[in-house]
Amino acid sequence: MELKDKEYTLTIYGAGVMGTAVLSAILKSNISPAPKRIVCCTSRAESAEKLAKAYPSIETTYGDEDNFKILGESDVIVLGLKPFICDVVIDKIGPLMKDKILISLIAGWKIERFLEYTPYVSRVMTNTPAKFGCGMAVVSFSEECKQFEDYIMKLIDPIGKALQLPEKNMDAATSLVGSGPAFCLLMMEALTEGGVRMGIPYAIAKDCAAKVMEGTAKMVMETGEHPGALKAQVCTPGGTTIGGLLVMEDKGVRSGISRAVEEAANIATKLGQKK
Ligand SMILES: NC(=O)c1ccc[n+]([C@@H]2O[C@H](COP(=O)([O-])OP(=O)(O)OC[C@H]3O[C@@H](n4cnc5c(N)ncnc54)[C@H](OP(=O)(O)O)[C@@H]3O)[C@@H](O)[C@H]2O)c1
What we know:
With 275 residues, the chain is of the alpha/beta class. The chain is built from ten helices and eight strands. It has helices at residues 17-28, 45-54, 64-73, 83-93, 149-156, 170-197, 202-223, 227-234, 240-250, 253-271, and strands at residues 9-13, 37-42, 59-62, 76-79, 101-104, 121-125, 135-141, 160-164. The protein has an eight-stranded mixed β-sheet with strand order 3-2-1-4-5-6-7-8, with helices on both faces. The chain is elongated and about 65 Å long.
């Protein structure tokens, strides 16, 4: 398998929420060598029409007949199907992916499950903020796919940030990265409601909560400091913050969040088990 000097086709098979986030990253990536054709496959005609309108430079197909045809013509495949759909169609689409470069976005599905079809498998776990260019992606590679590491990392990086991780950590990353936005949103909702409870209008409380979370994340990224050290800097002795933090500890917020990551990771492991 060689992409250099080839007029190759890249297909996003299952171009829903995550597939289109990766599509946006690919379109921004100035990847070299660049695909000659980018095709997005969906199940329904209306999804294909919407994509064609939103991304005029790409082709779209829908329905098994046309999707299977394009899959057979593709060189690089981004698999963005839901896990239960993939379970149903894998016996049909697997042989069409023979020896292609496969980038799987599917939660819980191990690299090993695709190796009977192609040796060039990478597994990417990303999240919905990728739609806005501030997503996180962790990437693992099969042994044979390591020769395409650079290419795949460059393709995925415009999602926001992309890091490599051994596959043994992927279920944990599925939880931390994939489900993480939902966990943060629950915290954001709780912060907002605390503000509302104390009399701040909802819209303002929501903006405050969102900006506090964004700013805090930025502070951690830019300083590289341990979150605990930054937290200690905000705690005036006898002050408001330490008072609030002690209530959070009494209520088990810290372990609640950590255990949520554990639970989601365990569920991700079960998702990937062959039925
Ligand atoms: N959403 C998240 O936050 C998130 C986070 C991390 C990982 N993931 C993983 O990303 C993957 C995709 O999730 P998603 O949220 O993007 O799903 P989604 O929005 O439902 O997108 C699925 C896509 O697959 C298409 N599709 C369904 N059946 C098909 C078939 N038989 N042939 C071809 N295309 C078909 C759908 O087409 P139609 O639009 O026409 O139905 C849709 O474009 C999942 O495996 C999930 O585990 C998701």
